[in-house]
Amino acid sequence: MKKPILLILSLGLILTLSFAEKKSKFIILITEQNIQGPQRVWWATEVDLSITEGTLAQRLINQGYEIIDPSSVNKIISQNKAFRIVDLSEPKAVRLGRLSKADFVILGKAIASGGGSVPQSNLRSCFANITVRLIRVKDGKVIAYLDASGKSAHLDLITAGKEALINAGQELGEKIIEVLSKEGGK
Predict the structure, then answer these.
(1) Could you write out the three-class secondary structure of 62-75?
(2) Cα separation, 118 vs 152, whole angstroms
(3) pTM to 2 decimal places
(4) Is pLDDT at 65 greater than 90 in this prediction?
(5) Per the CB 3.0–4.6 Å rule, which of 22, 33, 34, 170 could disulfide with 112?
């Protein structure tokens, strides 16, 4: 009696796992510039994700999505020097997405700019703006053009820029998740 019940439970578990929803994979390609510093891009300079990319990646991971880590794409990039440019074109970004087995590419720019001093304090204000295209890799179609902004005030202008980029990245993450939920989820 126990064997048939165990068999039925095992089959049920196998069926459940096989029909479980596959979560989408993302490759994030956002150039970032904080307070007139140099542009940061991991695919051209082999550095880690930028502040914006890291914040966005964590937001998507928290929702169950997968992020393709730069270290897993290094071999592809080293074999094709066309990917080693700061301003990656949309077709090249989609090609990199295909080669890295991503479902979506997030391609864009993030810039933090210093503002004025906060009245009656030593704080400096800063603003960050991000613009991206969310591209479905399988057909190369842009499914959304999105933007986000963040602001911060801090004694140190570079730190204010970092905080503003984090705030903008969190806002962008929410917008991407909203678009995906309307698209059918994954």
Answers:
(1) HCCCEECCHHHCHH
(2) 11
(3) 0.82
(4) yes
(5) 34
Distance (Å) of CA 95 to CA 55, 62, 79, 88: 24, 27, 13, 11
Percent over 70 (pLDDT), the chain? 85
Name the burial class of residue 21, with classes exposed (0-12), middle (13-18) and buried (19+) by CB atoms within 10 angstroms of its CB.
Answer: exposed
> Are the beta carbons of 29 and 96 closer than 8 angstroms?
yes
How far, in whole angstroms, is CA 133 from its chain's centroid?
11
Residue 41 three-state SS: coil
Number of H helices, E strands in the chain: 6, 5
Helix (H/G/I), strand (E/B), else coil: 24: coil
H or E element that contains 186: none
**Of residues 56 and 156, more confidently modeled:** 56
Report d(CA 176, CA 130) in Å as an integer.
13
- CA dist., res. 72 & res. 43, Å (int): 11
Three-class DSSP labels, 77-101: HHHCHHHCCCCCCHHHHHHHHHHCC
Q: How far apart are CA 125 and CA 25, in angstroms?
A: 35
